[in-house]
Amino acid sequence: MKFELLAADPSSKARRGRLTTSHGEVETPVFMPVGTLGTVKSVSPDELESMGARIILGNTYHLYLRPGGERIARLGGLHRFMHWHRSILTDSGGFQVFSLAKISKIEEEGVSFQSHIDGSRHLIRPETAVEIQMQLGSDVAMCFDECNTYPVSHQYAADSMERTLRWAARCREAHTHPAQALFGIVQGSVYLDLRRRCLDGLVEMGFDGYAMGSLSVGESKEQMLEVLEAVTPFFPDSKPRYLMGVGTPEDLVEGVRLGVDMFDCVMPTRNARNGMLFTSLGSIQIKNSCYADDPLPVEPGCACYTCRRFSRAYLRHLFLSKELLAYRLNTLHNLHYYLDLMSQMREAVEKGNFEAWRHGFYARREVS
To answer: Which of the following is catalytic: 9, 139, 261, 264?
Structure first.
């Protein structure tokens, strides 16, 4: 993996870069659609590529439980398995172990848990998480970390952060895939001293990139931005910076302003299935009665497949009728919106006018 910095905005910390993997180039800042189970729900790989996606995310926890890392490896790896020939980042499964498992127990060796699928017992060690990701053959793998919810005490967050550092060292030792990058994850909840200590420890070990974990887990937006603003400037300039599991369009804009290069979130796909559609003027709920006779597309001028062909009235009819096409068309629009938003921000950084673009982004929402 290679990461190049191509431009920096003079009025903010926004960066423009390029991430190159064995599966192609990824322009940053970038949003990665979430393909939890080896698929971005309701859309095909060809559709993803046609709308400009160059990297997607897969989930180690889910793919480990079903169909299994060894099976995917026998079938040629995750790229071939899901017929996606661009880049893939796999998360470590840590967040899902803590949020989805019926019963989990954290020990120094790893995390033992009961599967949410069939109740079977499992132990994921840092070495296990790395091994599964090597079997999957993703372009970017993540260290196994201990995720915190909010709130937690300073002492609990400190103990958790130190364990994350010990696990990161074990992940680094176990990782032997020559074509796969490995990112470390910064933990420490909302405590700035812990975040800095964790980052310093990870940088000393040396990783291909660095991520900020356990944000947008219950803390306020102000607290999240405070952590990003205080800690992100100390991430190595020459390595990609990844904000995990975030978020709203506004979160992406503020993250880019503060120097983040990579984002992922289920919001555009999950909200699409719940009838929330994103536009430059804000979000709309397509089920609302005001759209029953509306002949306009979701967003006039939008170039996505959905907006070029269908009206709000039709989308509302499909959604209320629980037709499967509703979820596909809504998802295509939301993903196009997110990917286009990132493209606009990359262009603004290249031109050196990101702050002016950002003010326009918020002004359009205020008008609506």
So the answer is: 264
